[in-house]
Amino acid sequence: MAVPPAVAAPPRLPTPTPTSRPPRVAVIGAGLAGLSCAKYLSDAGFEATVYESRNVLGGKVAAWKDADGDWYETGLHIFFGAYPNMLQLFKELDIEDRLQWKQHSMIFNMKQTEQELQPGPDGKISTEPKYSRFDFPEWLPAPLNGIVAILRNNDMLTWPEKVRFAIGLLPAIIFGQKYVEECDNLSWTEWLQKQGIPKRVNDEVFLAMSKALNFIGPDDISTTVILTALNRFLQEKNGSKMAFLDGSPTERLCKPMVQHIEQRGGKVHMEKPLKKIELNEDGSVKQLIIRGVGADTADEVVTADAYVSAMPVDIFKLMLPPEWRKYESFAGLEKLVGVPVINLHLWFDCKLTDVDHLLFSRSPLLSVYADMSNTCREYENADRSMLELVLAPADKYIGRSEEEIVEVTMRELERLFPQHIGRLAARPAKLVKYHVVKTARSVYKTTKGLQGSRPTQKTPIGNFFLAGDYTLQMYLASMEGAVLSGKLAATEIVKAVETAMSKGEGAAAAFR
Ligand SMILES: Cc1cc2nc3c(=O)[nH]c(=O)nc-3n(C[C@H](O)[C@H](O)[C@H](O)COP(=O)(O)OP(=O)(O)OC[C@H]3O[C@@H](n4cnc5c(N)ncnc54)[C@H](O)[C@@H]3O)c2cc1C
């Protein structure tokens, strides 16, 4: 598959290095950003040690196996053709075959009319779900494949609406990413109004897209987020092509990253939460205090040549030493706040659908969902469905009990699968079991005007760097953004050592 080039990996350090041993870097957090940073540092000849607070790898892609051997995950995760750094990583780890690419389409649930949901003469509802597809022809280059996909779909948008929308998009196409970044001062709804695009376009398409991208609605989301996604999807032939991982992200993606790091002399320590960042008099990092987990375990002191926070922004803010608050690049952090989201897994006693793809529910309660028994090799089941569904926006539900959340979701499924779910369903499906994973603070909420608050990977502190999807990179809050941020942090660290070496100085000078 043709994919645009990834950002170059940092070069390997020349030998001998400025210290008699490889420079040591302590990375805090074993999500995708932390693991990516440690991976690229290991490749560059550093000794990278990762400290993760939990007993599971992956952060927001973490997954667990239940007593029956079934996996459940923090989130339903989709990989896109427009993820060059992630795809490059799969290649470097030699695990490309683990990505299960789907047909190049976007599939939306169609809303059923009241009449369609009426019971038949037998008193039962046997209405099948209706889908509307945007199919991207393989034989056309971008952006023609996207334009044809949009023009061929007549279920969701009328011709005048399509034309109005295409005209509205022209500035983004002509002026590119610069225009996209400038639009951060508008919410998506405000931008649509400004471009004179009918509100129905928002209700029909962008409510679903906005919820899928950041778990919030179009009145809240920054225009930069939607235009960045549209730009990638329209400008790259396979940009919107989707893949599912063939199993749990913890096992199938994070573990190979850990193996890669450890084979190159690094380490990944689990259940080692950062308690405090201690400073030297000049404000640089002196050491990390890692909290002892368990009754008889003492706190640990960790020292290294350089330090990377790859923790989520909400936790990093709590760990930020008060002495650093004066720096402008940390000041904006207060505005970055994780958004709540809930990921549900529902196992049924029969098959609900044979769709082997992601589905946009277009439901007020839910965002995207998939029948993982069709989409994912390790969860495959020819006779029973396992729906993985994202509930968003989740502010109203995050504090509710799992039973309540499942109940409202099942009520919503009566509309999505009327023939299987509900009192009058003609072919009733039984819910066998469920898992609900709540993330009270997930990715940062990408409301308007926040681009300037995102910190760069290089910080004003010479021996301290940042990685994480919230740090400044063009892929926003996503797996691609996390992997890229880790690579960019590693690149800054390598650059600092190279600069010191070019002046004949040691590692201590590199991180001053
Ligand atoms: C429901 C859901 C669905 C999603 N769907 C998609 C999708 O389809 N496509 C996509 O690209 N992205 C998706 N995302 C977003 C994606 O998962 C994240 O952008 C990405 O995984 C973030 O990685 P990260 O490394 O920046 O942060 P995190 O994954 O949050 O990693 C931070 C790590 O730091 C650890 N940590 C925290 N505190 C400490 C401490 N004190 N000491 C040590 N370690 C600590 C955490 O335990 C965690 O492991 C989704 C997210 C969710 C929640």
TrEMBL record:
<keyword id="KW-0125">Carotenoid biosynthesis</keyword>
<keyword id="KW-0957">Chromoplast</keyword>
<feature type="compositionally biased region" description="Pro residues">
    <location>
        <begin position="7"/>
        <end position="21"/>
    </location>
</feature>
<keyword id="KW-0560">Oxidoreductase</keyword>
<comment type="pathway">
    <text>Carotenoid biosynthesis; lycopene biosynthesis.</text>
</comment>
<dbReference type="GO" id="GO:0016020">
    <property type="term" value="C:membrane"/>
</dbReference>
<dbReference type="Pfam" id="PF01593">
    <property type="entry name" value="Amino_oxidase"/>
</dbReference>
<feature type="domain" description="Amine oxidase">
    <location>
        <begin position="32"/>
        <end position="493"/>
    </location>
</feature>
<keyword id="KW-0472">Membrane</keyword>
<dbReference type="InterPro" id="IPR002937">
    <property type="entry name" value="Amino_oxidase"/>
</dbReference>
<comment type="similarity">
    <text>Belongs to the carotenoid/retinoid oxidoreductase family.</text>
</comment>
<dbReference type="InterPro" id="IPR050464">
    <property type="entry name" value="Zeta_carotene_desat/Oxidored"/>
</dbReference>
<dbReference type="InterPro" id="IPR014102">
    <property type="entry name" value="Phytoene_desaturase"/>
</dbReference>
<dbReference type="InterPro" id="IPR036188">
    <property type="entry name" value="FAD/NAD-bd_sf"/>
</dbReference>
<dbReference type="GO" id="GO:0016166">
    <property type="term" value="F:phytoene dehydrogenase activity"/>
</dbReference>
<dbReference type="GO" id="GO:0016117">
    <property type="term" value="P:carotenoid biosynthetic process"/>
</dbReference>
<feature type="region of interest" description="Disordered">
    <location>
        <begin position="1"/>
        <end position="22"/>
    </location>
</feature>
<keyword id="KW-0934">Plastid</keyword>
<protein>
    <recommendedName>
        <fullName>15-cis-phytoene desaturase, chloroplastic/chromoplastic</fullName>
        <ecNumber>1.3.5.5</ecNumber>
    </recommendedName>
</protein>
